[in-house]
Amino acid sequence: MQLQERINAFVKLGDFLRQFSNEVFHKAENIEHNELFFDGFKHQLKLAKENNGWFTEENMSFAIKSWSDALTTENLTTWLSAYKIENRTPKQVAIIMAGNIPLVGFHDFLSVLITGHQVLVKQSSNDKHLLPYLAKYLEYAEPEFKGSITFTEAKIENFDAVIATGSNNTARYFEFYFKDKPSIIRKNRNSIAVLTGNETPEDLKNLSEDIFRYYGLGCRNVSKLFVPKNYDFKGFFESIYHWHSIIEKAKYANNYDYNKAVYLMSEFDMLENGFFMIKEDESFASPIATLFYEYYEDASKLKTYLDSKKDQIQCIVSKGFDKNEIAFGATQKPQLWDYADDVDSVEFLLAI
Fold first, then answer.
1. Cβ neighbours of residue 317 under 8 Å, at least 6 residues apart?
2. Cα 333 to Cα 27, 33, 63, 83, 195, distances in angstroms
């Protein structure tokens, strides 16, 4: 199979997904194999929601829209133009996926197949319904993918390389178990935002998307703020208030109530507005419904500190603070060439 044929298949998948990129699905004309797959994918979305209470219609539609926007001929061609992808003997690449947000492992899945390899997928039990169905659609869109995609719930065996995502604890297991294989091992990372106090209400409103999307469960979600000494949080709370209905989600509300009770019983200082809390804390990882913050006085010293912690940071959201910063509101809209942990998975896959 030629590279262009693989690109064409994923473009067809993007066209298929576009029908589900809003909470109200729209069955479009001229989508290949739609009669066979449209209703079935609706059912898979229903099963995914029933299996994982964090996978709401809104968040699944958001994830699907992100991928339908990414899977275009222009985006795929631009992404891959930086590499020399030649026909080669396919290797079997295992992927151990996380399950914190919908289709979180799709970029690895795409990368393996688009570079001409075969993929062996071990999914998280939290996100097990969507990808196998989309893989089946791919096999219909491009029959030569048949035999190149395998899903397993058993111990992964007979593979040439591995991409594994997990916690810091599971990463140590991965590093030992896969020590003799080419590997990308991803650990815990969090995203931060650096504020100067000069942000507009629109900037802060956009930042709220980085905080609340997917209930804050993604590594690209902002979980920590760095703010100047004596920062006034009034404007921040006003700008995030449009997310107040999030407290109506039972799983989120339960976490909010629990964490608030812990903070109150422990007599920790915190600010809250009825659906969200902020607490001064040095940690990067904050619980659901909570955002940690820390004061800074010298921007250059803060840059030096953050550089020393770069192995714990996925994204830095700011406006004029860092050369690699991400704009407010853009953390959950990565491009195909925005690699997790800044590790180029395509380069890795072309080298095995």
1. 191, 192, 193, 194, 207, 210, 222, 325, 326, 327, 328, 330, 331
2. 24, 28, 9, 23, 20
Interatomic CA distance for residues 312 and 245, integer angstroms: 31
Spell out the per-residue pLDDT of the chain, length 352, in tens: 899 999 999 999 999 999 999 989 999 999 999 999 999 999 999 999 999 999 999 999 999 999 999 999 999 999 999 999 998 899 999 999 999 999 999 999 999 999 999 999 999 999 999 999 999 999 999 999 999 999 999 999 999 999 999 999 999 999 999 999 999 999 999 999 999 999 999 999 999 999 999 999 999 999 999 999 999 999 999 999 999 999 999 999 999 999 999 999 999 999 999 999 999 999 999 999 999 999 999 999 999 999 999 999 999 999 999 999 999 999 999 999 999 999 999 999 999 9
Task: Check whether residue 142 and residue 214 sit in a common domain.
Answer: no
Q: Are residues 23 and 152 in the same domain?
A: yes
Best CA proximity match to 208, nearest among 278, 261, 311: 278
Q: Is 330 helix (H, G, I), strand (E, B) or coil?
A: coil
CA-angle at 51, arms to 25 and 211, nearest 5°: 75
pTM for this entry: 0.95
Nearest of 125, 124, 114, 107 to residue 148 by alpha carbon: 114
Q: Do residues 94 and 239 both lie within one domain?
A: no
Instruction: Measure the CA dihedral 102/211/239/245, to 10°.
Output: 50
Q: What ranges make up the beta strands (E) of 55-147?
A: 92-96, 118-122
Q: What is the DSSP string of 255-294?
A: HHHHHHHHHHHTT---EE-SS-EEEE-S-S---TTEEEEE
Read off the CATH number of the domain in which 29 is found: 3.40.605.10
Domain around 308: 190-317
Q: How far is CA 255 from the centre of its chain?
A: 21
One domain, residues 47 and 146: yes
Return the amino acid letter for 334: P
